[in-house]
Amino acid sequence: MIRFIAIRLIGAVVVVWIVSVVTFLIFQAVPLLSHTNPVYFYTGKVPFKPGSPQLLALEHRFGFDLPLYAQYWHYLSGILFGQTITDGVSTPIPCSAPCFGYSFRQNELVGTLILRAAPVSLSLTIGAAILWLIGGVTVGTVSALKPRSAIDRIGMGGSLAAVSLPIFFTGPILLLIFEYTLGWLPDVSYAPLTQDPAQWLRSMILPWISLAFLFAALYARLTRSNMMETMGEDYIRTARAKGLAPRTVVVKHGLRAALTPIVTIFGIDVGTLIGSTVITETVFNLRGLGYLSIQAINQQDLPVILGVTVVAAVALVLANFVVDVIYAFIDPRVAL
Amino acid sequence: MTSVASDPRAASSRPGGPFLSVEDLRVHFPTDDGLVKSVDGVSFEVDRGQILGIVGESGSGKSVTAQALLGLHKGSKARITGHIWLDGVDLVPASENDMREVRGSEIAMIFQDPLSSLHPFYTIGDQISEAYRVHNKVSARDARKRSVEMLEKVGIPNASRRYDDYPHQFSGGMRQRAMIAMALICEPKLLIADEPTTALDVTVQAQILQLIKDMRNELNSAVILITHDLGVVAETCDQVLVMYGGQCVEKGPVEELFDKPEMPYTWGLLSSMPRMDRVRQTRLTPIPGSPPSLIQVPKGCVFNPRCRFSDRVEGDRCFTVHPDLLPTSPRHEVRCHIDPEERRQILLTEIRPNL
To answer: Cα separations (Å) of B162 from A136, A137, B140, B153?
Structure first.
């Protein structure tokens, strides 16, 4: 078990490292290919004439005159050990590990921006994930047990509709109904869970529903097909032949096996969503990681883009690692 | 243990008679292509301590018959008619709830492929204990003790340690032993073994059959052994029922059926079986053609498209009239239009020399 976890952990670290190298190189290539001075992507302007000694000094200050590997090491050592940010004029800003650099556009450390946005993304993704898992699995199971029945047709028809409806459609509709028409949720501005749980819940409930709606539909279809396959397995016949109650047969013997592959997909979905709920965030005016990255892209704020990309990759790798470990517990055939 | 006989909800009961008596059992499945008559009027009896073999090709209705006995078709679209008298109680009209009481405790079943029939995510021991605890109110510890005993009884070494193993950690033969332990843990009065040795290699087959016989002796259970392997039947069974196209075409005591078979299909089965006690022939004789569609069953005798002897019957009765299952000797019944005298003659002159 420990060996298994250790191997997976080493694998996860290697993947994160590769992601950091690749993203770093890509973002190095952007200034090069667009013939733009890299200083522009950090400060939003090139204040001196090309070739002037002031610009060269600035490039030197940012380290753009160093070879690529040295620049990468500078970036990596910042993440690992922290560094001190200085533009040579203002007071140097200490930036402890993991330091993703400084956004001159927003005048804040990238780490601070991410730390402010991450709880929003986490709240949104995890809450929605719980909702869609429960909803999707329930609808899928009920449909699978009575294939072709009215309830199956309603469930599957509904989920087809839900898959087809984008969040920028369902979101505003929900807002229209619950906020503007019924007035049940008059103020949906975000508050952190730790400060005001009630307001946090109020602000999250509609985003959860609209995000979960889409995914619940996918999970319902997935659960249905897995469950139908499982219920045709020989061991289900054995369970019935033992005289077990239908409920035990379905839940303990059927769902247990049908849900195992869904765990994998669930992990990947949650990991991916943490950095990419930008549409939901935009519709509901939430400032999560998706919003942060879109804002950074619009402003061509390279340090922020780089930081969010690495953090999102870490989230995905971490989610996959957790799934691997969970999988080893729920499927005894996985070699430990 | 719940007894069906004492259950007031049981629709009908009939004291006396053989332990298990199946009368005119029909299992029909309505499908988009038509009505599939998987089992079409099968009758047989088994007493406690007896082993009945049901033989036939794939798709002849053997397994469907077995699953009908357990009521496993309840809740599906299958239409089941006839009677299944178990200890004087008819199981055909019984509700799913009543059948659940019967499954495992009165009738237990073991299946063909023990790997796919065991749940991959639960330990062998958990699955056996579960079978015990459905029908007995005991603590988890007592159930474990009982399961370990049962595993020892079916010949699993280190049973108390292997209790916690998963099915994939068992060998094929051991898995089938575990399945047998699971089936017998509530001491059922009827054990149905659906091709219990088909997925196992030959050396293990003999051990499993011996185990089934031993357990039959110990519990005095009635056993139904479903197989397509006539060797298994000859070795194990007291009575044999040959099924073809969802119908019983011949049945009788095992010695008589092997010694004096009278139905052309049985002849075909015997001719296609390798035998050690006869002079070696150059080739085994296969039965030409393939089993009939259970939707479009041939008119007349179900076996007529593949029968070499239909010219021995006057006119075209084989193709127009469905033959009845008629006694040819006190305990031997045959479904064939050929005159009994002529059948015996064909057996002596044309069939036996080539067996």
So the answer is: 38, 34, 17, 14
How confident is the model over B297-337, as pLDDT tens digits? Answer: 899 999 999 999 988 888 889 999 999 999 999 999 999 99
The two beta strands, B190-194 and B107-110, are parallel
Contact at 8 Å (CB) between B337 and B316?
A: no
B104 interface with A at CB cutoff 8 Å: yes
Predicted TM-score (pTM) of this structure? 0.83
| DSSP state string for A140-174 | HHHHHHSTTSHHHHHHHHHHHHHHHS-HHHHHHHH
Which of B67, B69, B91, B119 should we substitute to test contact with A (largest number of A Cβ atoms within 10 Å)?
B119
- Count of residues making up chain B: 355
Report the SS3 class of residue B334.
strand
Beta carbons of B119 and A242 less than 8 Å apart: no
Pairwise CA distance, residues A253 & A232, whole Å: 12
Kindly report the nearest CA distance between residue A251 and chain B, in angstroms. Answer: 13
What are B39's strand-pairing partners? B27
Closest CA to B329 of B269, B270, B250, B266: B250
Task: Calculate how close chain A gets to B33, using CA atoms only, in Å.
Answer: 17
pLDDT digits (tens, 9 = 90+) for A129-186: 999 999 999 999 999 998 889 999 999 999 998 888 899 999 999 999 988 888 888 7
Element (H, E) at B329: strand B325-329
Q: Is the peptide bond between B264 and the residue preceding it cis, with omega within 30 degrees of 0?
A: no
Phi, psi values for residue A175, rounded to 5°: -60, -45
Residue type, B147: S
